[in-house]
User: What shape does this take?
Amino acid sequence: MSINTINRKALRLCGSAALLIAALAAGTGAQAADVSSQQASAVTAMPRVLLLATGGTISGTADPRSAIGYNSGNVKGQELVRGVPGIDKLASINAEQISNVGSQDMNDKIWLQLARRIDEAFERNEADAVVITHGTDTIEETAFFLNNVLHSDKPVVLVGSMRPGGSTSADGPNNLYEAVEVAASPQSRGRGVMVVMNDQIHAPRWITKTNTTAVQAFASPNAGAIGYVDPASVRFVMPAVQSARAALSLPANGQLPRVDIVYAHSNMDGRQIDHAIADGAKGIVVAGEGDGDMSKEALAALDRAAAKGIVVVRSTRLVSGFVNRNVEVDDDKRGFVASLDLNPQKARLLTQLLVANGVTDPFKVQQAFSGTW
Ligand code: ASP
Assistant: This one.
């Protein structure tokens, strides 16, 4: 597999811009004019990055009351950028505040706002790439959602931090620097949405948060990182995968349909599933045991759901491996969908988007999960 390394052109450009300013300030006549004409085009060639801030620990400040406490959402997007030395040499960055929430409060409204703003920015050619600052709890969900609804080949990079600004081991500034570096890289074209955390680049389908507090909290257990980044280089180790993206439309009424996740465990009965049916869920995702298993009572409740036209998806509560069709559960007979490598939270999102797009037939839903439609 070939590994590409890029030298950051932007850094050189910025150095050149400094030269230009120095030359003009010195008023060195013809020489200055010469530098000016060469460098003006270099300066305008700097990639334009639209930074959309949504909140999270990356915009938090350490709380003096305790060593681990912090208040999220204290620092706005523009201030975040100002706090990262050298970031202005990578790209010309325009920051906008979309929301200011801990990502445990991320919701449909903000997702739709993000998707619409990104579409608009690319359509109007306002930006060459987008960086989204986000809390880490649900960053994988937002990345997966956007990857399914955005249609541009310009890069969209999500980034967060595990430690707030001002803490002894703040990881936000480096993560943000590297996110802009990836967004500005010509190699990122055609790769859709990505997540940058702790020197790694991950794809939305595979990334998941695997640790509550560690700086190295993210992994893509079924695939590995798609690339690596440090302040000197961006390296992709996987080719761009386009087939796994289903181009879905945003819901016309501005709301995603309700899809519930039910967590499987020993001694499980069917009551939570029956409650979901009674509460009007349009889909049910089971975070199953092992390869998407659950008790006989739970399966019987899922049969009742499928009989009502509710989309039933078997996923797993494990962090790695695939849930395949018809292994221990006869999905063909029962009309169920196997989530393959999508974890419950992503299976839920894809089901929501499919139902919103009028896709409820288990065969078609399964195709979308496989990325084969
Ligand atoms: N609860 C925070 C959030 O997701 C955690 C973080 O950002 O690391 O917004």
About this structure: The longest helix spans residues 9-26.
